[in-house]
Amino acid sequence: MGGTSSNLPQLSTTEVTSKLQDPKYLFIDVRGASELAGGKLEAKRFLNIPHTQIAAEFKRSEEEFKSAYMMDKPSKDAHIIIYCQRGRRGGMAQDAMAELGYENVYNWENGYSSL
Prior knowledge:
This protein is of the alpha/beta class and 115 residues long. The protein has one domain (20-114): Rhodanese-like domain (Oxidized Rhodanese, domain 1), CATH 3.40.250. Helices cover 30% and strands 17% of the residues. It contains five helices and five strands; from the N terminus they run βαβαβααβαβ. It has helices spanning 13-18, 33-36, 54-58, 62-69, 88-99, and strands at residues 10-11, 25-29, 46-48, 79-83, 104-108. A five-stranded parallel beta sheet has the order 1-5-4-2-3. Strand 4 (79-83), helix 5 and strand 5 form a beta-alpha-beta unit. The chain is globular and about 35 Å long. The protein starts with 9 loop residues before the first strand and ends in a 7-residue tail after the last strand. Residues 21-112 form the Rhodanese domain.
């Protein structure tokens, strides 16, 4: 069973797919490389950071983040959609980002498997 027990905002598959080409949203796939090789969202703005590395990566300085990911580090009020295969790891990554002060982080409640 997928999903998350987080009280933070969750998005449905329809909501997620409607935002794929909106540059306002950064999509972060928190699955591992082998899962990513099986397919990913074709989003306008996309990063892959495994859920176990989210906190460390978002603690990087602006300069280190830009060097690692070739994009500016998102601001604390950036709109970020996190996803994994079924929603659980996405929820954990969402919780970690909220603890770092990110205010607009959404989790795809049923993940990539719901496509």
